[in-house]
Design brief:
Length: 114
């Protein structure tokens, strides 16, 4: 794999991030460019570039991203709801090639997305 992604460098503690959760499978940290009062990225520690590279062996890890999202939604007090977003590829607006779930909350979010 050519060069580490910025998220792999965060996992490896080579660059700082505001980490809000970590376990053996995943890491969650504040987005550098928040689009809502709560904007956290939940990422697998395994390097999966995008949903387009997901395999059955990743199912346990990807399921963990959702249980962590629920836990963080509760911890951040998002009782009115929140949005989970996974961008995939160029047309999906993905800019970092390490699969990640955006957790956005604490404001009403419009639909459909742009
Ligand atoms: P996406 O467009 O779905 O690939 O989202 C990538 C997100 O990553 C974007 O919202 C900004 C965020 N981001 C990019 N670089 C960094 C960084 O170095 N630190 C943090 N915390 N977030 C970053």
């Amino acid at each position: 794999m050519a060069g580490k992604t910025i998220f792999k460098r965060i996992i490896d503690r080579e660059i700082p991030a505001n980490i809000v959760y970590e376990d053996e499978l995943c890491l969650a940290f504040r987005d550098l460019h928040p689009q809502a009062p709560v904007h956290v990225l939940i990422i697998p520690k395994t390097e999966i570039p995008s949903v387009a590279q997901v395999e059955p062996e990743h199912e346990a890890t990807l399921g963990r991203l959702f249980t962590v999202a629920r836990k963080l939604g509760e911890e951040f007090g998002l009782s009115d709801g929140y949005r989970l977003v996974v961008n995939c590829g160029k047309d999906g607006g993905q800019t970092v090639d390490h699969l990640h779930v955006h957790l956005l909350g604490q404001r009403a979010l419009a639909w459909p997305p742009g």
